[in-house]
Every structure is written in structure tokens, then in C-alpha cells.
Amino acid sequence: MTVSSRTTVFVLGGARSGKSAFAEGLIRESGLFQHYIATGQAWDDEMKDRIAHHRATRGDGWVTHEDPLELVDRIRSLDHPDNAILVDCLTLWLTNLMMAQRDIARESALLADAIATLKAQLVLVSNEVGLGIVPENRMAREFRDHAGRLHQMIAARVAEVYFVAAGLPLRMKG
User: Fold this and answer.
1) Are 80 and 120 in contact (CB under 8 A)?
2) Residue 75: burial class (beta carbons within 10 Å; 0-12, 13-18, 19+)
3) What terms describe the molecular function in GO for this protein (predicted)?
């Protein structure tokens, strides 16, 4: 599935749905310089293994930037018509913001506003967390609610939205 260069794409899906592989393919197909913004932090061995797996499956040709909090600044620093930027993932970024007690609404709005002015191609990946049961604790409910609001803001601003399940992308917008 090909998208035009210099467009914005939002890819949603559940854990291990194939969303990252699909997003990486969109960036590779662009023919532009490939930038990967990793928002995850390796707090434990399991997360270290996940990060190593993502790096290995992504392969060569990528410039990786690790930005757990300053996502908007990094995107702006890479904004050039010759660049394709993949952000993986917004839910990890949201977790980092919550743990750092940042203003989620403000940070989300800054990201949404930045999308509108980009010259680079941008593909954003996020986990859809609103399809399950209501979480049992307050922090998990707040996370789910923040993610839902962020996803709506991003989906409203991008040119294309895909939902990936079982490795199959479903075009929702664009």
C-alpha cells in the first residue's frame, strides 16, 4: 500500500498487530531519507528485548532518534522535504508524559499543531487501547482517556488513517 510523499499518516492497532511493520513499509516505499523516532524507554529487560527486536527487524537505512519526551521538537528538527519520519509510538510517548507529570493536553495540542505545517512525510504509530474493558485503576483509566483524545486529535489532522489487525491494514481515512 503506497502513500504519496509529504503526507501524514496515522497507524493504529493492538499489540503485535503488525502496525509497526506496516508503518515501516510506508516509509521505505517513500524513497526519502528514513528517520525513526523511538519514544520507548528500556526500564527493564523485557523492554530492552522489545527495543532490540524492533531494531533488528527494521534493518539498515534508518537514522534512529530516541526521544521519550521532546517528540515535537525532534519532529520539527527533522522537518525537510527529503525526510520521511516514523514515530513509534504515541502511547509510549503518552506514558512518558504522564510519568513526568507533563501537561498532556498541551503536549497533545502541540503535536497536532505541528502536523499541519510539515514538509516531511510523517507516519505516526499508536496502540488502540480503547476497545477493551474499563481499566480497574484510576491511572489506567486516565491513560486510556488521554490516548483516546490524542488519537482523535491526530486522526483529525492527518491525511490518512489505517487500523491494523492481524497484519492487515484497513484504511479508515484518506
Assistant:
1) yes
2) buried
3) adenosylcobinamide kinase activity; cobinamide phosphate guanylyltransferase activity
